[in-house]
Amino acid sequence: MAEKRWISETLFDDLGFRMTYAVERVLYEMQTEHQHLVLFEHKHFGKMLMLDGATQVTTRDEFIYHEMMTHVPILAHGNAREVLIVGGGDCGIAEEVLKHKSVARLTQVEIDASVLEFSKEHFPEFTTPVFADARFESVIADGMKYVAETDRRFDVIIVDSTDPQGPGGVLFTYEFYAACKRCMAKGGVIVTQNGVPFFQPDELVSSVGHFRKLYADAGCYVAAIPTYVGGHMAMGWAADDTKLRQTPAETIAERYRAAGAFATRYWTPDVHKAAFALPRFIADVIAGDRA
Ligand code: SAM
Q1: pLDDT tens string for the chain (291 positions)?
Q2: For atom 16 of ligand 1, which residue has the closest CA?
Q3: Contact residues of ligand 1, CB 6 A cut-off
Q4: How far apart are the first and last CA of the chain?
Q5: What span, in angstroms and rounded, lies between the C-alpha atoms of 90 and 168?
């Protein structure tokens, strides 16, 4: 019987540990123009996609991150018509955004065409409904270049990026966030994939620090995602309307009902509200930058 292959997430090598997964079957593996991509089957997490040794999405727990990165900003905004996703190549977030009938147009700017092509084949549960939706526009470009040059204006910007390494590094810079502010419509909000504070505090401090120089309201909210190892995952939050984050759960519930109360498995109006109640160590992490 052939030795089982194990694949390790190398994201935290500098911290001296690795998550390692027993591979049932490698479904796809390639070095793209931008990054190393491997998709494999795992007996507990289902299909697992890794880019440059970092877990991106698994079929078993994707709903948590995708719902929280989508329904929180869109229902807090209350009238989001133009939505931009930077990154998001697997289309898991796009699928959630398009559940909102109020959204008139969704633009996704992904740098790596291979991730999109591969996702059409291996993540049809996301890509099929998305590419069948006339409101969806797919752009293959560097997100930094797109937000710096576009004349479009967006109500909600969702940065579903890789970690600040390789092509994703620029998506954590002040210049990128300033360019996002430039193409944000009045009353808009931006949310960002911002790592796991217990292991990656610096990227959260850095992003929130940039947000504070650009927006009236800056912070983060959290959710626990089993394969984003390390406890709470932080999702960066920035907006000029300081009330958006304070929107009462009752108002969020009304908006959710008006949006058709589509099925969710993690997000609820109360979970939405609670996600902004930060554990003290995370509040201290982002407060650290106030000095
Ligand atoms: N949810 C995942 C996470 O939290 O790690 C991210 C998923 S999604 C697959 C990340 C996408 O960001 C990848 O497809 C990658 O190609 C894309 N990406 C990285 N840098 C980019 C850039 N500068 N512009 C646009 N897309 C980028």
Answers
A1: 677 899 999 999 999 999 999 999 999 999 998 899 999 999 999 999 999 999 999 999 999 999 999 999 999 999 999 999 999 999 999 999 999 999 999 999 999 999 999 999 999 999 999 999 999 999 999 999 999 999 999 999 999 999 999 999 999 999 999 999 999 999 999 999 999 999 999 999 999 999 999 999 999 999 999 999 999 999 999 999 999 999 999 999 999 999 999 999 999 999 999 999 999 999 998 986 554
A2: 112
A3: 34, 51, 56-57, 65, 86-90, 109-112, 115, 142-144, 160-162, 167-168, 170-171, 193
A4: 59
A5: 15
52, 61, 112, 160: the active-site residue: 160
Structure tokens at 140: 């293959």
How would you label 155-170 residue by residue, b for 16+ Cβ within 10 Å and e otherwise? bbbbbbbbbbebbbeb
How many angstroms is it from 88 CA to the middle of ligand 1? 6
Give, for 182, the enclosing helix (H) or strand (E). helix 174-182
**CA 204 remoteness from chain centre:** 14
Q: Active site includes 160?
A: yes
- Separation of alpha carbons 158 and 107, rounded Å: 10
Distance, in Å, from the CA atom of 271 to the CA atom of 161, rounded to the nearest integer, reads 23
